[in-house]
Amino acid sequence: MSTLTFEALGKSYGDTEVVRDISLTIREGEFVSLLGPSGCGKTTILRMVAGLVEPSRGRILIGSDDVTRLPPNRRGLGLVFQSYALFPHLSVTENVAFGLRRRKVAGAELDRRVREALAMVRLATFADRMPRQLSGGQQQRVAIARAIAPRPRVLLFDEPLSNLDAQLREEMQIELKRLQRDVGITTLFVTHDQGEALTMSDRVGVMARGVMQQFAPPEDIYHRPATAFVAGFIGRPNRLAGRVVRRDGAGGRVRIGDRVELAAAAIDLPDGAAASVIIRQEAIRLAAVGATASPSDAPDRVPGVPGTVLLRSFSGARVQYVVRVAEGVELVAETGSQGAAADLAPGTAVSLNIPPEAVFAMPPEEPAP
Amino acid sequence: MMPVRHALLILAPLGLVLAAFFLVPVLMLLPTSFGSYVPGSGIAKGVWTLENYLRIATDDYYREVIWRTLGLGLGVSLASLILGYPVAWLIARGPASWRVPLILLVVFPMLLNLVVRSFGWIVLLANRGLVNNLLMQLGLITAPIKLMFNLTGVMIGLTHIYLPFMVLMLVAAIRNIPRDVEAAAATLGSSRTHVFLSVTLPLSAPGILAGSILVFVLTISALVTPRMLGGPTYKVMATLIYDEYVQLLDWPSGSALSFALALMAIGIIWASSRLARRWAGMA
After folding, report:
1. Distance (Å, rounded) from C-alpha B125 to C-alpha B132?
2. Greatest CA separation found in chain A?
3. Is B282 within 8 Å of A89 when comparing Cβ atoms?
4. CATH no. of B50-280
5. A29 in a domain, yes or no?
6. Nearest Cβ partner of B189 from A87, A102, A156?
7. Cβ neighbours around A61 below 10 Å, total
8. Which tens digits make up the pLDDT trace of B92-122?
9. Residues of the domain holding A110
10. Strand locations in chain B, DSSP E?
11. Where's the ABC transporter domain (chain A) (predicted)?
12. Shortest distance, CA B208 to any CA of chain A (angstroms)
């Protein structure tokens, strides 16, 4: 157990900078995710920590040891790969024992620690199997047992759940989180799945194009995105072209189309600037016009935005609507599949309640026309 | 799964060619191998005998040639493996820009005619050849070392000729090993040497086996190179068969030897594929 620190860590391939001067410290026992689209540099960071890629600039410290130039075998890390990367020619037991043997653990102590690690991932009865006799989820659990058995100072996960099907992935998220808390090993988890990062982590680092956009607890990442990229990447955003009407502290008012004006919690632009307005789908409340919304639903009633339902799609737990709020302006609104708002037919006139906290105005990605 | 009928259709063209030009002639040789050769008049009519086969099993000269052939096969396979593995590893794991030049370098000798390549070795290895002359001029030896017309010469020549086959098989096998598996071993505390010995080498076993079988079978059936570098006296099975047919006109003996050689090759392929299946069970 140790801290993990990056000091102005960077990596370039030729002229291409894939990781730009990242500095951060992961506390002892903390679970940190690096989140971002593919090609954002998150895997490169992880591979630099593991010693598989050499940094171009900066330092990596585990505890107070500078490991920047150490070969992977002398860093004392556990790494779990997306591809599992089990040793196909060794049994489950021998896979788990591999790292222990390298640390000169032998005899009864070796047996005990292999059993202990397999019990932690609930695979005790599979000890004598070969990897190819296991399912994907079981193989990944062996890989996790193999990584934690030598009690590494830092655990690294490289998209370990992406090859599993959705249901198993959610099970494993909870299991991994519990396991990490039990063993208390400092963990760096790389993923492109925001749900995964938000559920499991103490803090999340959102990355884009090699730059750390925001490094904060999941709640801050979700509710207080620091950059346009984060606001647009997290949650389910509507992204609309608009204009800043008036700034008011951090927030203000924005206009979409000609008539629709909304309060926004965060505006990153001067008055009158063209903006990319991001509205979280899941934060929009909608009600049929004329229906009496329960008072608790909207405590401080802001006048709703009128609109018409164009499309309804049901996906089990959630219902999504496409709502036209003005000529050429369409929003996606998402709601639970129970209650009055869950059953609005296309054509219904609705009133949208859009809380300011779910509205962000950011510089448009392309220059406005 | 593909229906058997389709699979047979796909195999049909090759199957017909092999049947017509390989299987039928071989089967026609079978009766010949049980015939009796009478010097001066040819194959005796209506006489059937096991004598040709018994002689192969009992005659000291034949047995020596058989053991020599097998030993040569083993030696050439081992030498190709030892020389070829580092090259194959470099092609599979080295800098990407080296890959094509290295493969070309390995394959290039195959573009030259077998006779030319073997003759090249005669120029190098003869008593007054380049190697002996150089060694004598350097004063390292006083009389020429015998490098030809013996095991050394044949082995050098055959290793050179069959090395590319081994390398290409090994490259395929090594490139098949996921890099993540090697990286996993490294993060678990393995030094580069230990990663190689505990992961890369065992996982390339199928390629080692396939390459060795290929080189072994090619070696024990090679004719031209042993003929040129072994000379008229240092014989292996292929050259012996050739002599029985062409020089002595003893077709029955030659046929029996051919079948013995084919059976040995089949036996070795069978044994190795069983071994491979056991290994594949692990990999």
Report:
1. 7
2. 77
3. yes
4. 1.10.3720.10
5. yes
6. A102
7. 16
8. 999 999 999 999 999 988 888 889 998 999 9
9. 4-228
10. 37-38, 42-43
11. 4-234
12. 15
